[in-house]
Amino acid sequence: MNSKNSSRGRQADKNSNPREKKSFRSDRSEKNDRPVRKSSEKPRFATSSSDNKKQFKRDSRKPQPSKSVQNTTEDATGIRLNKYISNSGICSRREADTYIEHGSVAVNGKLMTQMGYKVQPTDEVRFDGTLISIEKKRYILLNKPKNYITTMEDDRGRKTVMEIVADATKERIYPVGRLDRNTTGLLLFTNDGELAKKLTHPKHNVRKLYHASLDKKLSISDLDKLRGDVVIEGKKVFIDAVSYVEGERKTEVGIEIHSGRNRIVRKIFESFGYAVTKLDRVVFAGMTKRNLPRGRWRELTDQEVNTLKML
After folding, report:
1. Digits of tens for pLDDT over the chain (311 positions)?
2. Structural domains in the chain, sorted by start
3. What CA–CA distance (Å, rounded) separates 194 from 8?
4. Burial level of 295, CB count in 10 A (0-12/13-18/19+)?
5. pTM score
6. Distant-in-sequence, close-in-space partners of 163: CB < 8 Å, separation ≥ 6
């Protein structure tokens, strides 16, 4: 793997791989109703000179300091310890608070359990004995191949996804969520603990679309059942959409979920008596495999990163 791999990924090509370009029927309906302002409601804008004067007075307040000024002030007074740990790529701020409370963090050789402590430029911060520092945020998207496990390292000597992205960046990055060994498709890596936490929490409804190949044709009746209530291991699974893959046999199914439970797609079909022979994640948080061959990675664009942060 080399830097050429990264540069290829940044280029937007209009022609995508036809094999990767499979569409799924959507079960969602769009709402076209728009709210209508009642005639009794007051207009949003001033309609008289007196109103204009009041509006001018309100708008002539002393301007607030810009973000750049606020950041300069923060740099001068230090950065909160939990934010410092989060910015180092270890975890989210909330998780950092827990680690601080349990004595995992030391500042200048002394155990630090004070939540509001602000790290100064000359401070030495250690997490579980390892020196940490604020890193530049990195975001790497991989089209994971089969027979790689999603873990940082494996004591059984199996191939890991970290081997594929080893040369992607000098910063220490982590996989966001996981794909099991035999599942292929999109997998994001980052050292942004806050974003990673956000993308893996079900409440944010991060879209994940899979192409599942089954050992036999999915019946119409079972397809309808999948669109209803599905319970796996005593817990309800929210299936956002499911349909046959257009132009393919009825063994090919597209299923969209936002659950992060382990092997959940395989378990869904197994509960109906089907075995998943192949499973490919084709969409993750709005990102697709367009121009990203199997086993290759690319850096996210600034626009993609901003979109993820607004989810």
Report:
1. 444 444 444 444 444 444 444 555 444 444 444 454 444 444 443 444 444 444 434 444 444 544 444 444 444 578 999 989 888 878 888 899 999 999 999 999 999 998 889 999 889 999 999 888 877 899 999 999 999 999 998 999 999 999 999 999 988 899 999 999 999 999 999 988 889 989 988 788 899 999 999 999 999 999 999 999 999 999 999 899 999 999 999 999 999 998 878 899 999 999 999 999 999 999 999 999 999 999 999 999 999 999 999 88
2. 73-132 (3.10.290.10), 139-299 (3.30.2350.10)
3. 28
4. middle
5. 0.65
6. 148
At 261, the amino acid letter reads R
The string of DSSP codes covering the chain is --HHHHHHHHS--SPPPTTT---B--------------TTSPPSS--SHHHHHHHHHHHTSPPPPPHHHHHHHHHHH-EEHHHHHHHTTSS-HHHHHHHHHTT-EEETTEE---TT-EE-TT--EEETTEEE------EEEEEEPTT-BSSS--TT---BHHHHTTTT-SS--EESS---TTEEEEEEEES-HHHHHHHH-GGG---EEEEEEESSPPPHHHHHHHTS-EEETTEEE-EEEEEEBTTS-TTEEEEEE----TTHHHHHHHTTT--EEEEEEEEETTEE-TT--TT-EEEPPHHHHHHHHT-
Amino acid at 9: G
Residue in this structure with the two tokens 């601080």, named with its chain if needed = 100
Catalytic positions, written as ranges: 180
